Automatic annotation (TrEMBL):
InterPro entries: Chaperone_Skp (IPR005632), Skp_dom_sf (IPR024930). This is Outer membrane protein H. Keywords: Coiled coil, Signal. Residues 1-21 form the signal peptide. One of its GO terms (biological process) is protein stabilization. One of its GO terms (cellular component) is cytosol.
Length: 176
């Protein structure tokens, strides 16, 4: 779809009569590089990593408790009454189900959180790109699907600089 839109634009630009022809300013932005090099992404990634580590620690502890109960059953099962063995087996099954549910929930939450962060950052990048386009009077900004672009028209570094400035301004305001 983007390729079709670009093709139509290029065709219209070529077919314009000379009187209508003007100087078009075209720029390129690499949204993946912008996102990955922005301080907002780094801060969000670090916060998400801390959340992940905490939940993984909790899941590991639950797994260790289950393993401990299974060891106890194997080690002491012959010495325990039938009711105690049954109760311990039920406890192990119940904990195993809860652990599986917690792992599934964790994976879903993690994927959802990643998508939310990526969407939020994508919006910020889009806003900065539009601001730069207006400020620098750029007529067309292209991104994905390029075969070649001259590095002189790549505004990715400008977008990253603007995102860094916004991040620093926000951090300063939060300190006050």
């Amino acid at each position: 779809m983007k390729i079709l839109a670009i093709g139509v634009f290029m065709l219209l630009a070529v077919l314009q009569p000379p009187a209508m022809a003007g100087d078009y300013r075209i720029a390129v932005v690499d949204p993946n590089r912008v996102v990955e090099q922005s301080p907002q992404y780094e801060a969000a990634r670090d916060a998400l990593q801390r959340e992940v580590e905490e939940r993984e620690r909790t899941l590991r502890e639950q797994q260790e408790q289950i393993a401990s109960l299974q060891s106890k059953l194997e080690r002491d099962g012959a010495l325990m009454s039938e009711n105690e063995v049954q109760r311990l087996q039920n406890d192990i099954r119940s904990r195993t189900r809860r652990l599986k549910y917690a792992r599934d929930e964790f994976q879903e939450d993690f994927a959802l959180r990643q998508n939310e962060l990526r969407t939020k950052l994508g919006r910020q990048v889009q806003e900065v790109v539009v601001e730069l386009a207006k400020e620098q009077k750029i007529d067309l900004i292209l991104s994905d699907g390029l075969v070649y672009s001259n590095p002189r028209i790549d505004i990715s570094d400008l977008v990253i600089e603007r995102l860094k400035a916004e991040f620093e301004n926000k951090a300063e305001l939060e300190k006050k």
